[in-house]
Amino acid sequence: MVSKPQSPPLSRSQIRKNIRNARKNLSKAEQEQAAKKIKVNFFQHKNPPKNARIGLYLSNDGELDTSNLIQSLRKENHRIFLPIIHPFNGTSLLFQRYEENSPMTQNRYAILEPKLNCSHICPLYELDYLLMPLVAFDKSGNRLGMGGGYYDKTLARYYREHMQKPELIGLAHDCQQVELLPTEAWDVPLQQIITPRQFYQW
Ligand SMILES: Nc1nc2c(c(=O)[nH]1)N(C=O)[C@@H](CNc1ccc(C(=O)N[C@@H](CCC(=O)O)C(=O)O)cc1)CN2
Ligand SMILES: Nc1ncnc2c1ncn2[C@@H]1O[C@H](COP(=O)(O)OP(=O)(O)OP(=O)(O)O)[C@@H](O)[C@H]1O
């Protein structure tokens, strides 16, 4: 039998482009549904410790909307932290407390982040969970991000020093799953991924 010619595997940048388009094409109604389901799914599978410290993100570029989840976590007295692009090295992330009245500013990608206040920064190893944005994920928990390497660089430094906390959890739409991602040495795989439909754990 003649086997079908295989198309070459897509590159990281091609996958990034395709999946960014797919999630940007989700309708407003689909985004709202997804935001509600992710909240339900989170509390179904995770039982945060009392007054947990949770790293999160504010959605951009069709990412899964975290606003419902943030509201519910706050109601239960958990503490939310958002990424700030490091003011000195510009290549890694700091996590700063995000409250309802926190002063905010736009970063270089026009994403809102808390205005730097060193006394509100939480060291990574004191976060219980880090809920991370991603562009694509595969069946092994590999993660492809926006291409800045911010999370990879932040976690690489951290991983050399600490191992236990935080739990690394990706949040994504179901359409962001791909069969196999081409990986790089610096990629930090996720331990769990929550989508509106599924909970994956490795
Ligand atoms: N919501 C959210 N916040 C986040 C991240 C994220 O992925 N999502 N990040 C995760 O690391 C960091 C920011 N990383 C980003 C990297 C690239 C682009 C981006 O839009 N790039 C443009 C080109 C921008 C330019 O250079 O002008 C593009 O690719 O179209 C956005 C965020 C920190 N905060
Ligand atoms: N631990 C690291 N040390 C040094 N450079 C790194 C490290 N991690 C990533 N990089 C650099 O960052 C660049 C972007 O990496 P990559 O494409 O994996 O980012 P990403 O995972 O898509 O983005 P992000 O983590 O911000 O969501 C790469 O070209 C790589 O050279």
From TrEMBL:
Name the cofactor(s) required for activity, per the record. Answer: Mg(2+)
Q: Does the entry feature the keyword Isomerase, yes or no?
A: no
Q: Which residues bind substrate?
A: L58, E63
Family matches, as InterPro entries:
FTHF_cligase, FTHF_cligase-like_sf, NagB/RpiA_transferase-like
* Catalysed reactions, semicolon-separated: (6S)-5-formyl-5,6,7,8-tetrahydrofolate + ATP = (6R)-5,10-methenyltetrahydrofolate + ADP + phosphate
What does UniProt give as the signal peptide span?
none
**EC identifiers of the protein:** 6.3.3.2
Output the GO biological process annotations, alphabetical, semicolon-separated: folic acid-containing compound biosynthetic process; tetrahydrofolate interconversion
What is this protein identified as?
5-formyltetrahydrofolate cyclo-ligase
- GO function term, MF aspect, one: ATP binding
List each coiled-coil range: 12-39
Instruction: List ligand-binding residues for ATP.
Output: R12, S13, Q14, I15, R16, R143, L144, G145, M146, G147, G148, G149, Y150, Y151
Similarity-based family: Belongs to the 5-formyltetrahydrofolate cyclo-ligase family.
Q: Which UniProt keywords apply?
A: ATP-binding, Coiled coil, Ligase, Magnesium, Metal-binding, Nucleotide-binding
Name the domain of life this protein comes from: Bacteria
